[in-house]
């Protein structure tokens, strides 16, 4: 446990303490609450917070709508491990490389505009828009939504599905009353894996969204790298951590933990 605890102390707890400390200091290093007052009273920062939450929600919804049916059909196919490998492979590629690949695809001289020109539509402004940002961000986050949902579906007892159909339930009733509720833990895990990182995106917002997409992640980057206002940047970081913690609490699978406790107690007895 010593190496693990040392790693957690040095690279998790210590940075969090430093961020919290810097959020209560001004440019002269003096203790102050002004950073939090500025954040709470400035419409600019509140708008950034709403934008971050809204875009993270849209990315989560898009990935969920694509990932759940994909995971379901994947659990019914042959060679599931091969398909899983193909889904996981893009996560091995550096995020910056994938982003630049989309820049090449969506630029004025990219493959997509070349195809649009070929069919007579003509080149379109695809980059530096909200839709292109959602497209790229959703593509990058999809594997992290598919995997937990797939694991939950695979662990589902087929006898429960067969029992619902034997009792006269339709396919929609079987899905809404049996399959989806019993795989909700995978959905919650996927929401955590997608929504929380989406709150702090900054590189994709810069390269794909340009200046049209402003989030808390870009604000933190601006304060730390450009204006050198580390106090305000740390304050936004603390707010972002609190938002992530709230999302984790809301999507925590309490029922599953409760069932596990009951099973452990029964086994002990």
Explain this structure to me?
The protein has 269 residues and is mostly helical. Helix content is 77%, strand content 0%. The chain is built from 14 helices and no strands. Helix 1 crosses helix 13, helix 3 packs antiparallel against helix 10 and helix 7 packs antiparallel against helix 10. The C terminus is likely disordered.
By helix and strand content, what is the structural category? Answer: mainly alpha
Helical proportion?
A: over 70%
Q: Give the distance, in angstroms, between the N- and C-terminal Cα atoms.
A: 31 Å
Low-confidence stretches: 260-269
Shape: globular
How many strand units? 0
Instruction: Determine the number of helices (DSSP H or I, runs of at least 4 residues).
Output: 14
Query: What proportion of the residues form beta strands (DSSP E)?
Result: under 5%
């Amino acid at each position: 446990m010593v190496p693990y605890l040392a790693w957690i102390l040095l690279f998790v707890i210590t940075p969090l303490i430093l961020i919290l400390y810097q959020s209560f200091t001004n440019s002269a290093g003096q203790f102050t609450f002004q950073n939090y007052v500025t954040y709470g009273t400035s419409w600019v920062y509140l708008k950034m917070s709403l934008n971050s939450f809204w875009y993270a929600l849209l990315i989560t919804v898009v990935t969920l709508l694509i990932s759940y049916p994909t995971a379901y059909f994947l659990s019914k196919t042959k060679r599931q491990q091969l398909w899983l490998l193909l889904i996981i492979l893009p996560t091995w590629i550096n995020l910056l490389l994938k982003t630049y690949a989309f820049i090449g695809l969506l630029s004025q001289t990219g493959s997509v505009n070349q195809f649009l020109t070929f069919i007579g539509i003509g080149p379109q402004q695809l980059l530096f828009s909200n839709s292109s940002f959602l497209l790229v961000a959703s593509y990058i986050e999809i594997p992290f939504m598919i995997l937990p949902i797939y694991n939950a579906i695979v662990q589902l007892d087929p006898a429960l599905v067969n029992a619902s159909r034997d009792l006269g339930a339709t396919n929609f009733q079987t899905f809404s009353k049996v399959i989806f509720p019993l795989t909700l833990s995978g959905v919650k895990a996927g929401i955590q894996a997608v929504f929380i990182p989406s709150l702090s995106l900054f590189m994709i917002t810069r390269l794909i969204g340009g200046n049209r997409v402003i989030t808390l992640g870009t604000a933190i980057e601006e304060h730390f790298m450009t204006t050198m206002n580390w106090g305000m940047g740390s304050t936004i970081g603390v707010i972002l951590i609190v938002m992530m913690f709230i999302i984790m609490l809301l999507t925590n699978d309490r029922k599953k933990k409760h069932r596990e406790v009951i099973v452990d107690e029964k086994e002990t007895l």
